[in-house]
UniProtKB/TrEMBL annotation:
The gene is dinB. Belongs to the DNA polymerase type-Y family. CDD domains: PolY_Pol_IV_kappa. Transmembrane segments: none annotated. Residues 8-188 form the UmuC domain. Mg(2+) binds at D12, D106. It holds the Pfam family IMS. It comes from the Bacteria. Poorly processive, error-prone DNA polymerase involved in untargeted mutagenesis. Copies undamaged DNA at stalled replication forks, which arise in vivo from mismatched or misaligned primer ends. These misaligned primers can be extended by PolIV. Exhibits no 3'-5' exonuclease (proofreading) activity. May be involved in translesional synthesis, in conjunction with the beta clamp from PolIII. It catalyses: DNA(n) + a 2'-deoxyribonucleoside 5'-triphosphate = DNA(n+1) + diphosphate. The lineage of its organism: Bacteria, Pseudomonadati, Pseudomonadota, Gammaproteobacteria, Salinisphaerales. The active site is at E107. This is DNA polymerase IV. Monomer. Its main location: cytoplasm.
Amino acid sequence: MSETLRKIVHVDMDAFYASVEQRDDPSLQGKPVVVAKRGLRSVVTAASYEARVFGVRSAMPAVRAERLCPQAIFVDPHFDRYREVSRQIRAIFLRHTDLVEPLSLDEAYLDVTVTHTGMPSATEAARVIRAEIKAATGLTASAGIAPNKFLAKIASDWRKPDGQFVITPRRVEAFLLPLPIGKVPGVGPKMKEKLAALDVHTVGDLRAFQREELVKRYGRWGRRLYELARGIDERPVQPKRDSVQVSSEDTLREDLPIEDLAPHIQRLAEKTWANHERKQPRVARTVVLKLKTTDFQILTRSFTPLSRPTSAAEVAEIACALRDRVEADARTRYRLVGVGLSGFVDGREEALQPSLI
């Protein structure tokens, strides 16, 4: 653990997009809501908890969601609304601390070691922040409280929805040892299988391996696994400033061939575009595709069109086209997909430039 004890809160909104839709249309409350356009090529952006009972999940093809839950109510996404609510939530965070690291529109890390509001503990800070979010937006949030970001993120999922869970420094080891290895961020189904072959099923099992052996097997990821098994995560909360790139990425539930990545690229393009819109008046000109193979090789491809992208659909189309520039064995499988935007310029200045076409 770090010598400088941090108090980190990970706040994660509950079924955010779907909850906003249910809030804004009371007739949807208590019903299985799927945020997605209907169609063969559409993917689920979000699902309410009522829809999740039927197995509906984000990134799932919309047609499959409809088969799983025929009574589901499909709602087109409204990212302008989600961004507005996200701004309200961000303002609440900043009343308590300047150390806010947003991960997306619906989640963020907060360092509440010292707060502007003089909260007596991180647990109380999380409780107050969640109450303020509920009062301001009518939506619920869950929170994880821990000495570092790794543990806080796991904890925020522990009592969802509308709950919070704290892992104190003294409880770190007791919490980690019996934890199923699949709960560790980054350990997807394929890695879980590899570890199971070594008779590793819990974090406690993983601790039996020395750093050198894990590094030999998994490279840098092996070193990371060694640290996480011991609750070590020294990453500070880093407030977002003017970034050179906005992006969204996901570790997939199962490793996929490149031809099956389109639905995930489309969903991530929508999330990235929603984050990009918050950068106004700065606009991006370059689309970036990031892939990580099952053996943790990272591949990136980028493209700067003559005219900058102006919609999520354009970003998705370009990112999907970038797959054709990935030269890899047809048997290669991918465990992570990311879509980013970079090459930011001031949109007001761009509007004054003469057309190049």
